[in-house]
Design goal:
Blueprint lengths: L13 H11 L2 E3 L5 E3 L9 E2 L5 E5 L8 E4 L10 E7 L4 E7 L10 E5 L4 E9 L19 E6 L3
Parallel strand pairs: 4-6
Antiparallel strand pairs: 1-2, 2-3, 5-9, 6-7, 7-10, 8-9
Length: 154
């Protein structure tokens, strides 16, 4: 099911992508106000932590890179995790639900960020490839976890 939505801002952020999910029924709010997978999906009722359990990545603005780049915390892999990719050329959002403990940190490249050298996953997924495969050392393929895509207009 692909629906079209108007986006008021040229640069989409994670919160806007989540609002589109809710409007489309991809995500709903439960009685405690937490986001969960909508009722029209096999994964219905799976609770998603709004800030920590969802990673949003837009197509990299560097045209040479031509990839989605995300750097979630390795702790995301230990719980149910939603990955949202925004293809700014096709105006398409892709939604993935990755169950807890599906992958391990050793399957991904990592990098250190900030003054405390915090370890983060370094995920780079080439755009335009239907398998949504990370180009890092583990070549992790996310395609099997894609459960929705939504087209939007600017």
């Amino acid at each position: 099911m692909i629906d079209k939505y108007n986006i008021s801002e040229f640069i989409m952020e994670k919160n806007e992508a989540l609002r589109i999910c809710i409007r489309n029924g991809v995500l709903t709010k439960n009685i405690n106000g937490k986001l969960q997978i909508g009722n029209n999906y096999a994964l219905k009722g799976k609770v998603i932590e709004h800030k920590r359990g969802c990673t949003f990545a837009s197509k990299n603005s560097n045209t040479a890179a031509n990839c989605y780049w995300a750097s979630p915390s390795p702790s995301e892999l230990k719980k149910d995790w939603v990955l949202i990719l925004n293809d700014t050329d096709l105006n398409m959002l892709y939604f993935f639900f990755i169950p807890a403990n599906t992958f391990t940190q050793t399957q991904f490249d990592t990098r250190q960020i900030g003054k405390k050298n915090k370890i983060m996953l370094d995920i780079s997924i080439p755009c335009g490839k239907p398998t949504f495969t990370d180009s890092g050392k583990g070549k992790v393929c996310f395609d099997a976890y894609k459960f929705e895509e939504i087209q939007y207009t600017l």
